Amino acid sequence: xxxxxxxxxxxxxxxxxxxxxxxxxxxxxxxxxxxxxxxxxxxxxxxxxxxxxxxxxxxxxxxxxxxxxxxxxxxxxxxxxxxxxxxxxxxxxxxxxxxxxxxxxxxxxxxxxxxxxxxxxxxxxxx
Length: 127
Hints:
This protein is mainly alpha-helical. It has helices at residues 12-28, 34-37, 44-125.
């Protein structure tokens, strides 16, 4: 297959990688030949059934591996979201504490202004 790829083509590396991927996929496939692979005195129907069960098991294993990978990705994402939630919660607590301090300061300033106003009014009325 690689013999048909032109080396001066700017996409030759991509084509070679694709060919390599196809070779890997084909090598993963299991091909059984009745005359070569049959164990002992197995009939053709039994052999076909064994091969079909083997192929189903391979598909199930691949699906399990794929699902385990997806599950791990979801767990990693859930952990990331938990970390982000904790950061937001920490930031919220910081802002809430600052807001409470600002509110206390505002109340103190109002009180001080009222006291000063009251005292000035009292001084003005005394003379």
